[in-house]
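Worked example

This section walks through a single chain of length 327. The input is the sequence exactly as stored; nothing has been trimmed or padded.
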Amino acid sequence: MLSGTIPYMVYWGLKLISHQYIVITAFLITCATSVCTGTSWGTAGVALMGVAAGLDVSLPATAGAVVSGAYFGDKLSPLPDSTNFAAIVAETDLYSHIRHLMYTTLPSFALAAGAYLFFGYTHLPSHAANLDKVDQIVTSIASLYHFNVILLVPPILVLWGAITKRPVIPVMLAASVLAIGIGVGLQGFTLQQGYISLIHGFNTSMFAAQGTEVTGLISDIPRLLDRGGMFSIMSTILLVLCAFSFAGALTLTWALTVIINWLLKAIRSVGPLIAATVAITLLVTGATSDGKLALLIPAELFRESYLRMGLGHQEPIANGGGRGYSD
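Given that input, the structure is written out below as tokens.
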């Protein structure tokens, strides 16, 4: 947000958009932004919903496209916390995990894209689309940033790191430093504002500090831009810490062993083992309302059972961090 990368992508998406393609465009834009940012919710959904309302396009259909695109990136980007956490608890290489996710995510992507494209041709607005909303968002974004193709370098760096399977943390930090440099050098922000964005997240009030008028902006712009920062993921970090502490306590007290032995009495083959894994995952999700614990607890319960039944073999992890299970 500080460098203008995501606003630049949204800007061109809205410039090229038409009412007939708003739903499929919302899907593709959120796919791209979620892959580049590694977040399912920090995407361009707010602006796109405003555009859909201005174009008199179905809001439920647009919302479905936004959520679908956001979770596409949440699965296939090497940056999201859930993707990394799942690879950690399964003791597998991150990129091997993402490669296996493609078996279900890419067919879903193709089906969703086809459905949204078909929707655009069969559910046209009943009257002429109102382009004022689009013009307001595009004009507001363009007035705040100095747009240039250089703004695409940070996401290209992230994409290069994903394709070449580079370590995630160095690539992510390098892209962040590069984005801060672009924000300072091209957008006119200060280095202090860059550090604030890194820790607390970006805020449109930073434009006012450099002399840009922000009082007249439409409400969609602050909702789109004001986000990010390390503090925004502290709840996730705390949950991971508590989850691993909980799992460690269960392991050291042999509580997991007792639970596993009770569960495995009825499990004699692969099918019941997979069914039990799914059932326990649903149970933990329903009981805790949190996906992180639903990843951790079944992994701790059933890891050795899967290995005993030959559903995973050990191989060196690509980043050199010990050994892990390939499946």
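What to look for: Confidence is low (pLDDT under 50) at residues 313-327.
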